[in-house]
Write a structure and sequence with these properties.
By secondary structure, the protein is an alpha/beta fold. It is built from 16 helices and 18 strands. The protein folds into two domains: 193 residues, Rossmann fold, CATH 3.40.50; 217 residues, pyruvate-formate lyase- activating enzyme. The protein binds iron/sulfur cluster.
Length: 499
């Protein structure tokens, strides 16, 4: 019947050949790769069976499960890839729900590398594909509802009207989408903006099909309280182990046997407060291995890693890392700054159980622990905090210098106002001072140092054509682009010094 069709922006509807970190390329300017090659070899579409996507973004799976648990029938709800959405709309279809991470390119990565404020003044792949998806739905009679982590960018009514969006759901969807969709199906009036509050773990339903990257959520929210973070991160909730295992089983049954645990800090599973509970974390990984072939993780915090090296070691031992298939465990993490002044001002909870003054030591210790146990941190920094001084940036440069010996990636991102700092001004490429460029150069040199070995190891299992394309790109970056980037940044430093 297809009463409710769910889909996602095209860059989210890909498993990136099992190399999920390549998902970051969605924030890159769209001329970085030829679209034909990019969407075939790097970001291929998800497989489809009987018109339904066999793999779907985790958030879309949660909305599907919520609807099915709250009165919708199996034949009324269908997840389809964006390129098939138009043809899937029937006369019974009342609503199309779209998941998006970064619809206008206002997230930190897109803001830094692409778009009006970014280093390359061109829209990113994800912005392009979101617009294209909405354009494809413009002359239909269905209601368009958009949700997902990037939905906050669509709060402005004029933007929604221009794009053809009827309703935006901001925040967690589980408590609000079933009523909303029922009203739309019944032809009732609904608000244009719906806010979803944090949902208790028992109200979070179990997904019904495989998720992109074999993602399984183990905790939601964070609770460290950084002042630039989304409000939904404020409340930390843990998912009970039985629920996690159910989702692992669903994924494995549907062919995803490599599971990625998702939380803002996987190492805090089972913790009370900010002290890592090693037993609970290892129990989680041991239980997961009863069903999955292997396990990975999305994010971890440097403070947790520094405070519990035994937990890191225990996970590597359980997963037998390094091995021929998985040379290391990669996880996203936040350094944000080397300035303890900024840590104290904007993110005092970031260093817990340590103090803000110990932050640089925490970061260096954590990188050392990771290196000793075959973990690769993919770390972000923030440039342009309100009130940031040259001294703050120089402290960050110093910290990055000290991390050179550790296999890792460090990506500087522009400050984007959100959470309690929402009314502050965001940062843009035009505001870069010579010391910002120096920090950029330090990060670039760090990444170039590690890029080839990381790419060779990470892409080992990718399909031959995709691997060849990406390795050619990596070689081009290391040889040609590296020289140009050095020349460009040095020029910018000189120009800025004379201003
Ligand atoms: S540690 Fe990360 S997720 Fe947690 S509040 Fe801070 S920025 Fe947000």
């Amino acid at each position: 019947m297809n009463t409710v069709l769910l889909t996602a922006e095209r860059c989210l509807m890909s498993d990136y050949n099992g190399s999920l970190f390549l998902g970051f390329t969605a924030c890159a300017p769209r001329s970085l790769f030829k679209p034909f090659l990019y969407f075939r070899l790097i970001c291929p579409p998800v497989p489809v069976e009987n018109g339904s996507a066999k793999i779907a973004p985790y958030g879309t799976r949660k909305i599907e499960a919520t609807l099915l648990e709250n009165g919708f029938k199996e034949n009324e709800v269908k997840i389809v890839p964006p390129e098939k959405i138009r043809k899937s709309i029937t006369e019974d279809t009342r609503v199309v729900g779209i998941t998006t991470n970064d619809p206008l390119g206002l997230g930190p990565a897109s803001t830094t590398f692409s778009g009006d404020k970014g280093l390359v003044k061109e829209e990113s792949f994800n912005v392009w594909k979101f617009r294209e998806l909405l354009d494809s739905l413009k002359d239909t009679n269905v209601k368009i509802v958009v949700g997902g982590p990037g939905a906050w960018q669509l709060e402005d009514r004029n933007i929604r009207k221009k794009l053809g969006i009827d309703v935006v759901v901001i925040g967690e969807g589980e408590a609000v989408v079933s009523d909303l969709f029922k009203k739309i199906v019944a032809g009732e009036e609904v608000p244009e903006v719906v806010y979803g509050e944090p949902v208790e773990p028992e109200r979070i339903p179990t997904i019904r099909g495989a998720s992109v990257g074999g993602i399984v959520e183990i905790a939601r929210g964070c609770g460290r309280g950084c002042r630039f973070c989304m409000p939904t991160m404020r409340k930390f909730r843990q998912i009970p182990l039985e629920k996690i295992l159910e989702e692992i089983k669903v994924n494995c049954k549907n062919g995803k046997k490599f599971i990625n645990f998702h939380a803002e800090d996987v190492l805090r599973y089972g913790a009370r407060g900010f002290e890592v509970n090693k037993e609970a974390v290892l129990k989680l990984f041991t239980a997961g291995l009863n069903f999955a072939d292997s396990l990975g993780l999305s994010h971890f915090s440097l403070a947790s890693a520094a405070s519990s090296p035994d937990t890191i070691r225990g996970i590597s031992e359980l997963l037998e890392i390094p091995n021929s298939e998985h040379p290391w465990i990669a996880g996203q993490t936040g350094i944000e700054t080397g300035s303890t002044r900024l840590i104290e001002n904007y993110m005092p909870g970031k260093a817990k159980p340590f103090s803000p003054q110990e932050w640089c030591e925490v970061v260096e210790t954590a990188f050392g622990v990771c290196s000793d146990n075959s973990w690769v941190p993919c770390a972000t920094l923030v440039i342009g905090f309100p009130g940031e001084t040259e001294y703050d940036v120089r402290k960050t440069v110093e910290l990055v210098e000290n991390l050179r010996e550790y296999k890792s990636l460090i990506v500087p991102l522009f400050f984007v106002p959100s959470g309690p700092l929402r009314s502050q001004k965001g940062f843009s490429a035009e505001e870069m001072k010579s010391y910002h460029w120096e920090l950029m150069l330090e990060c670039w040199n760090h990444d170039i140092h590690w890029l080839r070995p990381l790419a060779e190891e990470y892409l080992r299992k990718s399909p031959v054509l995709s691997r060849k394309l990406l390795m050619r790109f990596v070689e081009w970056v290391i040889t040609k682009a590296n020289r140009r980037v050095h020349e460009f940044i040095k020029e910018q430093i000189e120009v800025e010094k004379w201003r």
